[in-house]
Design a protein that fits this description.
alpha/beta, Aminopeptidase, Leucine Aminopeptidase, subunit E, domain 1, nine-stranded mixed sheet, six-stranded mixed sheet
């Protein structure tokens, strides 16, 4: 993971380059404070104070920077990220604002995935000084969680298979004194038959498994996190075309979210009995692969007719959600890179979110808006449950029509969540197809900060 430990430091009067923030509306007034030469320099850079713009202003033998923002008194998470990414190596101080929430984007702007190659284009660190030292640990922890998701999702499947995900759980359990139980291979047939069916075609070193981490006092309310851990998805016998398979290393993005969120929860000491369940499989093609037309048993006892082996994530989640429900949780939150339909509906910048309870959904939306990670609620319509009817089993795993794919997948999962349990499902892309300041191309968390801040408000520290 990119080392961000010293990128924001307490302001003790160190030498630092000033950053002046301005707005498009206020730029003309600000420009009056500059010399004619300095104004000419900004004009040559076509700087007019628009949000996201960056200007370098000569100042004798040195320089200072100017950044365009929407509101210097209410900085958003990413409004300084462009500065953190583009400024020369050095130490900086905001001249007319406090960084606040923008510390998060300053940190994530430094992210680089360099496991397989050196980033020769990267400049040295840009250090930001702040007097808001008390707020720094919060943004540091959230930035590290975000970058953990990026690292896990960016890592190719050969190095981030089921065994590697298990190793991540082992590190997590050791760091926080949690209990970890792992069921793998043919032992899954008894308790997690759908996890076994989806993963059984993979090579031995990518054998399927389910990780179950438990932490916290038994007397505290149970919070369950579930993450889809399809480490690579060929589509199974309903094989994906080459273009559709290219990014399937990211199909364990839900697991990455669950791991990162669990780390935040345990580090902060939320008052919960935490259960984290991640089924990890490769949806591979070989002789034992499950087939279209098969009928699978499930942990819940429902039988599932397979219409499409490429709708495998909901199968492994079904068994995991059933197990999570057995703990009688106060809340279940699952993350999954589940449907292309959610991307068609919302594009790459929003996580689709479905929830049984309106107040839980609203709390997540408000937490997301406040932390620049807004989810978008999609419905779980009763009218579409008929799309999952089977002629020979209790339920099918994929509808035969092209309508409401994300919601129908959510309705499938809903059948495996215990009655009356508060449940939230995030259908997250876990991937950014193009970069934005503070948000690199590649693996990305969506809904992570929304869920984290909602949980902090609900369970306290």
């Amino acid at each position: 993971m990119t080392d961000i430990t010293d990128l924001i430091q307490p302001d003790r009067g160190q030498d630092a380059t000033a950053i002046h923030l301005t707005t498009q509306k206020g730029f003309d007034e600000y420009a009056k404070t500059l010399s004619a030469g300095q104004r000419a320099s900004l004009s040559a850079q076509k700087f007019d104070g628009s949000a996201g713009q960056i200007g370098i202003v000569p100042n004798g033998d040195d320089f200072f920077a100017v950044g365009g923002v929407s509101d210097p008194e209410d900085l958003s998470s990413y409004c300084l990220a462009g500065l953190a990414d583009k400024l020369p190596e050095g130490t900086y101080r905001l001249a007319n604002a406090e960084a606040g929430a923008a510390m998060f984007g300053w940190l994530t702007a430094h992210y680089r995935f360099t496991r397989y190659t050196d980033d020769e284009s990267a400049t040295g660190p840009r250090v930001l000084l702040t007097e808001q030292v008390g707020r720094l640990p919060t943004y540091m922890a959230e930035a590290e969680a975000e970058m953990l998701v990026r690292d896990l999702v960016n890592t190719p499947a050969e190095d981030m298979g089921p065994a590697a995900l298990e190793a991540e759980f082992e590190k997590l359990a050791k760091a926080h004194g949690a209990e970890l139980n792992v069921t793998k291979g043919d032992a899954l047939e008894q308790g997690y038959p759908m996890v076994h069916a989806v993963g059984r075609a993979a090579a031995r070193h990518h054998a399927p498994r389910i990780m179950h981490l438990v932490w916290g006092k038994e007397s505290d309310p149970v919070l369950a996190l579930v993450g889809k851990g399809v480490c690579f998805d060929t589509g199974g016998l309903n094989i994906k075309p080459g273009g559709g398979m290219r990014l399937m290393k990211k199909d364990m993005g839900g697991a990455a979210h669950a791991i990162a969120l669990a780390g935040l929860i345990m580090a902060a000491g939320l008052k919960v009995r935490l259960n984290v369940l991640v089924p990890a499989v490769d949806n591979a093609i070989s002789g034992p692969a499950f087939r279209p037309g098969d009928v699978l048993d499930s942990r819940k006892g429902l039988t599932v007719e397979i219409h499409n082996t490429d709708a495998e994530g909901r199968l492994i989640l079904g068994d995991a959600l059933t197990r999570a429900s057995e703990e009688e949780p106060d809340l279940i939150v699952d993350f999954a890179t589940l449907t292309g339909a959610a991307r068609v509906a919302l594009g790459p910048d929003y996580a689709a979110m479905m929830a049984r309870k309106d107040d839980t959904a609203q709390a997540l939306i408000e937490a997301g808006k406040a932390n620049d990670d807004e989810p978008w609620r999609l419905p779980l319509p009763e009218a579409y449950r008929d799309y999952l009817k089977s002629d020979i089993a209790d339920i099918v795993n994929a509808q035969s029509n092209p309508y409401a794919g994300a919601s129908v997948a959510g309705l499938f999962l809903d059948r495996f969540v215990g009655e009356d349990i508060d449940w939230v499902h995030f259908d997250t892309f876990a991937w950014r197809p193009y970069p934005k300041p503070g948000r690199s191309k590649g693996g990305t968390a969506y809904g992570l900060r929304a869920a984290w801040h909602m949980l902090k408000g609900r369970y306290g520290a």
